């Protein structure tokens, strides 16, 4: 049985050694950027893809430190949002629990339907556990109530520095990766005189 790499040979199509090499090369890491391309495509040089890192770098460099007044407004907004989320979770919990009571009191028509009942109950219990968990909101409220302006500013400055450092490093890694990948592909073509 042929593979995707040998199917043209199997089908008695005229396949040159160079074409076979280039098709097989797509299975290697240097051609990972073509993973979604057609297997009949030949290896292509990889383009530099650093837009995400450049955007993140720009955001970190321009992420201004809020004034104390802006910080207090942010604190209030975060606490209010957490309370609003808790209200949504409470309403959702009521709907889930209402349906859970109905599912638990439902009498399946046959023993073959018992699995359906158990499944419905499990779905509702899991949804209550994950969708109605107020712990995150409570933690967020506690954090924001106790957050000091000076600590917030310090953390923001450190986060910006770390982000600038990481994205600068990631840009350099991407440049080196593209260079290495493209050299591999270029060397391959050179060996085939293609």
Category by helix and strand content: mainly alpha
Cα distance, first to last residue? 29 Å
Overall shape: it is flat
Order of helices and strands: HHHHHHH
Report the portion of residues in β strands. Answer: under 5%
Number of domains: 2
Question: How many strand segments?
Answer: 0
Mean of residue pLDDT values: 94
Helix content, binned percent: over 70%
Low-confidence stretches at least 5 residues in length (pLDDT < 50)? none
Rg, rounded, reads 29 Å
Characterize the largest beta sheet: strand count, sense, and whether it forms a barrel: none
The number of helical segments is: 7
SSE blueprint:
Elements: H1 7-10, H2 17-25, H3 51-62, H4 68-105, H5 114-131, H6 135-146, H7 149-192
Helix pairs in contact: 3-7, 4-5, 4-6
In short:
By secondary structure, the protein is mainly alpha-helical.
Provide structural commentary.
By secondary structure, the protein is an all-alpha fold. The protein folds into two domains: 7-48 and 177-192, no CATH class; 52-174. The protein is built from seven helices and no strands. The protein has helices at 7-10, 17-25, 51-62, 68-105, 114-131, 135-146, 149-192. The longest helix is centred in the last third of the chain and has 44 residues, at 149-192. The radius of gyration is 29 Å and the shape is flat.
Keyphrases for this structure?
71% helix, 194 residues, mainly alpha, 2 domains
